[in-house]
Design a protein that fits this description.
The structure is a single chain. The protein has 170 residues and is of the alpha+beta class. The protein has two domains: 75 residues, no CATH class; 78 residues, ACT domain (Alpha-Beta Plaits, 2-Layer Sandwich). Helices cover 39% and strands 19% of the residues. The protein has eight helices and seven strands, in the order H-H-E-E-E-H-H-H-H-E-H-E-E-H-E. The strands form two sheets. A four-stranded antiparallel sheet has the order 5-6-4-7, with helices on one face. Strands 1-2-3 form a three-stranded antiparallel sheet. Helix 2 packs across helix 4. It is elongated, with a radius of gyration of 18 Å.
Amino acid sequence: MGEWMLDLDRYFAGRGAQLKVAEYLVRNGLRVTVKGELLAGEVEVTQVSVANACKVDRRVVKSTLEYIKSEKNLMKVYSNLAVIPSLRDLAPVLGFGAIEIIPDDAAGKGIVAAVTSEISSTGMGIRQVIADDPMFDNPELTVVTEKPIPRNLIDRLLKISGVKKIVVLS
């Protein structure tokens, strides 16, 4: 089952709007129940709100959920999704630093390890790391640190193999 995420396009081939909904559910950790409900943690999320967020008709969300329920491998994944709180947008309020790392190739190996190692070598604490799965369009690595990252450290991070660009978020 480990390869299925790389084949999300295959599961939703010819179903562009459903693929958009399916990716939205994964990115946001919205779990699908056997009854076809959408849950964020234990809070029910309406099909209409997902449709609005994805800019699709509610019926597309409903048909996506029906399809997910009908596919054993998809249901194994979607029934186990979880919401993860992100400190990304909260970082400036808390006095933390936050950067987004855009990779040359998100499937490349060692970017997370190299970035966290470089930051840790300065003695700066890391509060959170969130890496998007390479299956997503424009996957990113978000790193939240205990204080804003100085310019000289950003310059060092830019020299790491596989790092294309860094966006300072705070």
